[in-house]
Design brief:
The complex is a heterodimer of chains A (about 550) and B (about 100). Chain A is of the alpha/beta class and about 550 residues long. Chain A contains 20 helices and 11 strands. By secondary structure, chain B is an all-alpha fold. The chains are: A alpha/beta (about 550), B mainly alpha (about 100).
Chain lengths: ~550, ~100
């Protein structure tokens, strides 16, 4: 296989100067230490965003797509790229897509409780406008579709500012907050034709699995609608459940400590946490300034590429997005290419395997070994990597405590007003007030050491690495993808999705997407959809039936 | 009630001065620090399993941090020549491509 892939060029992670990335992350740490204020209304009406150039390969992307494989199922079963292809062929309309999702929401969200708020009328109005733009009420026979996400129904986590639509972050603090402007990431999805169906449930203030502010479980795992104790993943649980249960074609969330990748792993989705700064955080209620990331929770790697392509890029209002390499053509990483067989990697890729990653007799270990075998067939080289005990020490949960002051500082006003506003999430905000200055500085040094060890002892040997935990890559701002690798069968016969975490070098999103896509061309795990809730599930959980609750200590333990 | 996950730690246990302090001593420190920050736990019930949070559980979590994460950070040994904090650059340097 040639070392070169799409367009005869190397992916961005091969071209980024890692030394300059190190220096930049240090500067981002400084921004965190400076404790920028967290204005709500004071943040103004939102900056006007510069128009961005189209990805160079977009035309090729739509031309080269294979026949949508989900045809024959309902419109709500389509992945976003399949729906996009059918819209471009004028076989369906955006209104039909939106109505199919709304119908499922009406039928099932009383059980799943994935949404906090619906924007049904606006979604239909927007879909009709997009369809009219294609020529007539049916949308059929009109001019070419514009926008990467033209007409695609999306679910948006409830910590993104949305103009005129309540943005609660599932917290008492924001119970009545209706922003006057929209988060940059959401603006960009809408500029590309994405249609917001509503805001999704989340862990209170983005801490843990979706709960009410006072700790009552809300959102169910779409694969276990009869058992609320099965974790849907935190904290972007609502986005994950909406996508997995076919109430939205795709979704976005945020990750500070596993909140995109964990629900993706728990619900058979492809979740991407991009490199720090790749997507603007302007208009996202902060949890940790220097570790918050925006990314897609999608049905497959192609969908993740589409959403990332739409959202990525510099934002004049977010310094974390500035001075980065130009946004590459992510679509090229998930496109078929002449001369490249299906399921083959477009770039020579060394996959780093940590000690013990695929050991064991259990079903999960077997699925991991299946993944390794298939990726070798896809053209990857498997290389053992062991960053050492020091790396593991610096990646530990205790070192992770350094994030806590960043969450307390912007919320001090509310802590002073009444600690009960924080409901079941209170403990980690109190903890954040207890680290001393020297401990905070030590933690920043530890993050720098962790990043350098990751670059020197992992990425000098491989291009991507298979991980047990998201922690090191959340702390250092490096990209991660979660992807489904199969299922295990639980007692009672319920199937439970299994997935893996893959970490990338700085700006390694193209390579991570290409890897996930090659795997998904070889397998059909990502095409599996959970069955609808049964009559017993519905009887048990519809409406306000209790689903259990988490207490303040457990939330502190799970807090991300 | 959903069962709590196992509480495990991959970080080696190190002797910490916080381990020698009693719950009462740590509580006094915590409440004083909160007062200095202008934050009060008084609105919370002392002990109420049905409440979203109570003073007893919040203080328990706070002590856990002081005996765990804070102590681990404090005990961490990093050579300042090799591992500067890079805390104070004034501008965001661009990430360069080769």
């Amino acid at each position: 296989m040639s070392g070169h892939g799409p367009g005869d060029r190397l992916p961005q992670d091969s071209r980024v100067d890692r030394r300059s990335f190190l220096a930049r992350m240090g500067a981002l740490t400084a921004a965190a230490a400076a404790g920028r204020p967290f204005p709500l209304e004071a943040m103004g009406t939102g900056a006007s965003l510069p128009r961005r150039s189209r990805p160079p390969g977009e035309a090729d992307f739509w031309d080269r797509l294979p026949e949508p494989g989900s045809q024959g199922a309902g419109l709500e079963d389509l992945s976003a790229w399949e729906a996009g292809a059918l819209l471009r062929r004028r076989e369906i309309t955006s209104r039909e897509l939106v109505e199919a999702c709304l119908e499922r929401i009406r039928r099932w969200d009383g059980v799943y409780q994935a949404f906090n708020a619906l924007t049904e009328e606006e979604a239909l109005r927007q879909a009709d406008a997009l369809d009219r733009g294609r020529g007539g009420a049916t949308g059929r026979g009109g001019p070419a579709v514009e926008g990467l996400l033209h007409g695609i129904p999306l679910a948006i986590k409830d910590n993104f500012y949305t103009r005129g639509v309540a943005t609660t972050a599932n917290s008492h603090i924001f119970r009545d907050f209706v922003p006057e402007w929209t988060a940059t990431a959401v603006v960009r999805l809408q500029e590309e034709g994405g249609v917001m169906l509503g805001k999704t449930q989340m862990g209170p203030l983005a801490t843990t699995r979706a709960l009410t502010p006072d700790g009552e479980i809300t959102t169910l795992n779409a694969w276990a609608p009869g058992d609320a104790s099965v974790n849907p993943g935190g904290s972007s649980s609502g986005s994950a459940t909406a996508t997995a249960s076919r109430m939205a074609l795709s979704s976005i969330g945020t990750q500070t400590g596993g909140s995109i990748t964990a629900p993706s792993l728990a619900q058979g989705l492809t979740g991407l946490k991009p490199t720090m700064g790749r997507v603007s955080l302007r208009g996202v209620i902060p949890l940790t300034y220097s570790r918050d990331h925006v990314g897609p929770l999608a049905r497959d790697a192609r969908d993740a590429a589409l959403l990332l392509q739409a959202m990525a890029g510099p934002d004049p209002a977010d310094p974390r997005t500035q001075g980065l390499p130009a946004v590459p053509d992510y679509l090229a990483a998930v496109s078929p290419w002449p001369g490249l067989g299906a399921g083959r990697l477009p770039w020579a890729t060394r996959i780093g395997v940590m000690p013990g990653w695929a050991d064991g007799d259990g079903a999960e270990a077997g699925l991991r070994r299946d993944f390794l075998r298939e990726m070798e067939k896809a053209g990857a080289d498997l290389v053992p990597v062991d960053p050492g005990e020091r790396w593991r020490e610096l990646s530990s949960g205790e070192m992770n405590s350094v994030r806590l002051p960043e969450r307390s500082e912007p919320f001090l006003e509310w802590l002073r007003e009444d600690v009960r506003l924080f409901g079941v999430s209170l403990s980690s905000w109190i903890q954040g007030l207890l680290l001393s200055g020297d401990e905070f500085v030590k933690g920043q040094r530890a993050r720098y050491a962790l990043l350098r060890l990751t670059l020197d002892r992992i990425f000098d040997r491989c291009d991507v690495v298979l991980l047990e935990s998201h922690l090191a890559f959340d702390q250092t701002g490096l990209p991660l993808v979660a992807l489904p690798v199969g299922f295990t069968t639980e007692t009672g016969g319920r199937r439970h999705p299994q997935g893996i975490l893959v970490g990338g070098a700085p700006f390694g999103e193209e390579r991570l997407l290409a890897l996930a896509h090659a795997w998904q061309e070889r397998t059909d795990h990502h095409r599996q959809r959970p069955p609808d809730p049964g009559a017993r599930d519905e009887a048990r959980y519809r409406g306000r039936a209790p689903r259990g609750r988490l207490d303040v200590e457990t939330v502190a333990e799970l807090s991300q | 009630m959903v069962p709590s996950p196992p509480r495990s730690s991959s970080f080696p246990v190190r002797p910490s001065p916080a381990a020698d302090l009693s719950d009462e001593e740590l509580n006094q420190y915590i409440l004083t620090r909160l007062r200095l920050a202008g934050v009060s736990l008084d609105p919370l019930p002392e002990r109420d399993p049905d409440a979203p949070a109570d003073r007893e559980r919040v203080l328990n979590s706070a002590r856990s941090l002081l005996r765990g994460g804070a102590a681990a950070l404090s005990a961490l040994e990093l050579d300042p020549q090799d591992w500067p904090p890079l805390l104070y650059p004034a501008a965001l340097p661009p990430v360069e491509e080769r």
